[in-house]
Amino acid sequence: MAYTFQTFVQNLPWLPPKHERRKATNPFKLMTMLTPLQWCFFLAGWFAWIIDAIDFFAVSLASTRLATYFHKTAADVSLAITLTLLLRGVGALIFGLLSDRYGRKWPLIANLLLLAIVSLGTGFIKTFKQFLGVRALFGCLMGGPWGMAVSLALENMPVECRGLFSGLIQLGYPTGYLVIACINLNKHVAAVTGWRNLFYAGAAFSTFAAVFRLVLPESTWFAEQKRLQKASGVETTESRKNTLFLREVGRMARRHWVRCVYGILFMSAFNFYSHGSQDLYPTYLQKSKGLSAHQSTVITIISNVGSICGCFLGGWISQFLGRRLTMIAFALFMGCMIPLWLIPDTFSGLAAGGFFVQFGVQGAYGIVPVYLSEISPPAFRAMWPGVAYQVGNMVASASAQIEATAGERLKDPKTGLPEYGRVSAILIGAAAGVLILLCLFGLEQHSSHYEEEAPAFAVGPEKYFDDTHDGDHKHETVHMEEATPRAHRV
């Protein structure tokens, strides 16, 4: 019993070791530590994540117009959001495995070009069934960018920079929301039939991101692993590498299934937390608070400025306070801001509530890329975090429908208007509570040097990584093999 209690106390979120906190210096100094190529890798990943947000939130912003155009209810349109979230895990698994096996470049380019094609095709649909079908395909494709973007961006930079840049890459999502919301302000786009332009814009942005990634080389880390594999002198065929890679996938699942379950639970709570505050927010402002579509879009933009500020600060602060402590602090802050999100009826009051709630939500979310990367099996940094993230999306896929259906049934006794806001507040409050509990009992490997590990397709990696191993590739899970009882084992 004493040992169990001691283990529990040791695993609680604590401050990182002093030598790691000293590295968390001025954010502008951290930015100067990156080389031009490292900046380009980061921007390539950042653009890919922006595209994901632009494609996803086009539906949220146009939900009222889509309902009018297809003669459906808001709950019916929210089914498209549910389908998108439901199928993201498929794309994360497929493109993540391709990235971990063949590199960070071509799988990401293919993913972005396919997104551009499907986004363009959305503008030509005529029926609601076609719309749902396209969004289902979209969901599968949208599962790919996050894992590949995060692995590309973070694995090629100094360890002490990863907290800050984790927040910066995650703020690509609210930035994408901000971009599509600004486009939505255009009077032609805001017309009932103007929703098609949102998807045309998404296709253009996806194509740009693919071209930008095309002109850059392969990830430095991945290219170096291929060079070391060749220099090891072990000759092997591509078929043999594929067989070894698939075997390592199975071994990873057997050895780290508890960690896999934790990652999915963690991201399920996070996605209820995030999507519960975003997906039906424009509808809440228009139908529950009586704002115009233009006013709703402006508040959405203000809210996403809060998201951007939160992501930046959350990622940077986590280098000082630790990943889990920072996430807990931002979740508690968000909870304190919920009354400001619900009570006001004025434009300024609702704008302030939206800003501070999203500051808290995305402040915690800004830590997710580096946190999942640090606790993931090192050889599967594109697939494992991406699948955990997107399966969490799948679990939370019904959040928009829950909010829409419950909100339509729950009416304000005074006005008779739907209570979308109250339902959303309950949902995100409960998700924040679960998230805090998972952070208290979870894992943390602050500033893990996962870039020192070999890829899963390597043959004979002990010859050039660590000659103390016995050739059973134990190095591939060196950070993850033990069920780390201490909060910060580097």
Automatic annotation (TrEMBL):
Membrane topology per record: Multi-pass membrane protein
Compartment list: Membrane
Signal peptide location: none
One Gene Ontology term from the biological process aspect of the record: plasma membrane lactate transport
GO cellular component: plasma membrane
Naturally occurring in which organism (per UniProt): Kwoniella bestiolae CBS 10118
Chief location bin: membrane
Record's protein name: Major facilitator superfamily (MFS) profile domain-containing protein
Biased composition (Basic and acidic residues): 463-490
Record lineage: Eukaryota, Fungi, Dikarya, Basidiomycota, Agaricomycotina
Single annotated GO MF: secondary active monocarboxylate transmembrane transporter activity
Pfam families according to UniProt: MFS_1 (PF07690)
Record key words, sorted: Membrane, Transmembrane, Transmembrane helix
Annotated region described as Disordered, given as residue ranges: 462-490
Taxonomic superkingdom: Eukaryota
Transmembrane portions of the chain: 39-59, 79-99, 106-125, 131-152, 164-186, 198-216, 256-273, 293-313, 325-343, 423-443
Residues covered by the Major facilitator superfamily (MFS) profile domain: 41-448
